[in-house]
Write a structure and sequence with these properties.
single chain, Glutaredoxin
Amino acid sequence: MEIWINPACSKCRSALRLLDEEGAEYTVRRYLEDVPSADEIRAVLDRLGLEPWDITRTGEQEARELGLTAWPRDAASRDRWVEALAAHPKLIQRPLITADDGTAVVGRSEEAVRDALSRS
């Protein structure tokens, strides 16, 4: 199991605390420092079963500067969104947890983190 975190994020810290309480084995990726490539983002999206706009923090200043809310959300625009996430990792929703069964979850709630635990 791997968890992509921003240490300054309270949701990330809560997810880590729960993983520790449950004795889970996991690897931490500080994705703002160890920035995922576009291919890694595509792989996580496939595991999540989501589109890039589904995991984009559109309320961030960088998103406003890029005008993301006006970007089309369609197959033809998917790569543009992925490239934006790779270039601006702060826009990636957090925490992302990849489970051992090949799936992933956005671990913003205790239920989502427990779901990831149940898959590992």
